[in-house]
Amino acid sequence: MSLKDVGNKIPIYKLKTTEEVMKYYDEWGEKNKYNKDMIEWNYTGPKETVNTFKKYALNKDAIIFDAGCGTGLVGLELKKFGYKNFHGADLSQKLLDTIPENLYQKLTKVDLNKPISTENNFYDAVMCVGTFTFGHVKPQALDEFIRITKPGGLICFTINEGIYVDYSFDKKINFLKEENKWKQLEFFKSDYIASKDVNAWLGLFKVN
Ligand SMILES: C[S@@+](CC[C@H](N)C(=O)[O-])C[C@H]1O[C@@H](n2cnc3c(N)ncnc32)[C@H](O)[C@@H]1O
Predict the structure, then answer these.
(1) From the CA atom positions of the chain, what is the Rg in Å?
(2) Residue 199 and residue 125: Cα distance in Å, rounded?
(3) CATH, domain 3-207, list 3.40.50.920, 3.40.50.300, 3.40.50.150, 3.20.70.20
(4) Which residues have C-beta atoms less than 6 Å from ligand 1?
(5) Which of 38, 121, 158, 163 lies in disulfide reach of 43, CB 3.0 to 4.6 Å?
(6) What's the pLDDT score for residue 9?
(7) How many of the other CB atoms lie within 10 Å of CB of 66?
(8) E-assigned strand segments in the chain
(9) In what order do the strands lie in the sheet with 149-160?
(10) Which among 4, 90, 127 is the best mutation to test ligand 1's pocket, defined by most ligand atoms within 8 Å of the CB?
């Protein structure tokens, strides 16, 4: 039995390097295990995030970047509510390969801890769900999300509560507010993976 099958808490806090994270997800994607686990754990991150997003994103033609799209659970929610143009990007090619055909208009393998190869002000919105967590993507990625989002566009994300202060997401978010880079529309503690006693901050910001 792998580590992912045991224990009360998800052992992602053990992951340190990007290589380890990639291997972890490449394995988790096998035999649809990631999706099965998310159903079993009642993972509500994608649903909660898209529910919040749709209150503000009224244009269903908006071009959306799903950063750390994994197996496409956010894409499925976006589709459910009529959004048509979304691009996915993830570190794990194995997870990208599991995404249903034609769900996303474009899929790319990326390391979000590095600069994103998208021009400035390209997207109407960025979604990033489950990807700000232990050993995954660092707060600096928020600078890139702002860069690739149009003025007036939306950035909607979750941050695992266990890293929010430890990884200085609290400071980064406030700094971006003080620098007038974005305006907070929503910020609250979401259920996320309540069945595992793991919650996340859910934020929705408007780019200035
Ligand atoms: C918990 S999963 C969330 C996936 C999906 N958004 C969801 O809600 O089901 C975290 C995702 O972050 C991706 N990831 C981790 N580190 C990354 C990095 N440096 N760059 C891009 N994606 C990364 C993983 O491959 C994985 O798909």
Answers:
(1) 16
(2) 23
(3) 3.40.50.150
(4) 18, 21, 25, 45-46, 68-70, 73-74, 90-92, 95, 110-113, 129-131, 136-137
(5) 38
(6) 40
(7) 26
(8) 63-67, 85-90, 106-109, 123-132, 149-160, 182-193, 198-207
(9) 106-109, 85-90, 63-67, 123-132, 149-160, 198-207, 182-193
(10) 90
Kindly report the protein residue whose alpha carbon is nearest to atom 13 of ligand 1: 68
Centre of ligand 1 to C-alpha 71, Å, is 9
pLDDT tens, position by position, 10-51: 577 788 899 999 999 999 999 999 999 999 999 999 999 999
CA of 129 from ligand 1 middle (Å) equals: 8
- Check residue 11 and give its pLDDT: 73
Looking at residue 56, its pLDDT comes to 98
Task: Looking at the CA of residue 18, tell me the nearest atom of ligand 1.
Answer: 19
If you take atom 26 of ligand 1, which residue's CA is the nearest one?
70
Check if the beta carbon of residue 148 is closer than 8 Å to that of residue 176.
no
Top mutation candidate among 41, 69, 91 for ligand 1, by most atoms within 8 Å of CB? 91
Return all residues near 4 (Cβ < 8 A) that are at least 6 apart: 10, 11, 28, 33, 37
Q: Which residues of the chain have pLDDT under 50?
A: 1-9
Extended beta strands in 48-141, E state:
63-67, 85-90, 106-109, 123-132
pTM for the structure as a whole: 0.95
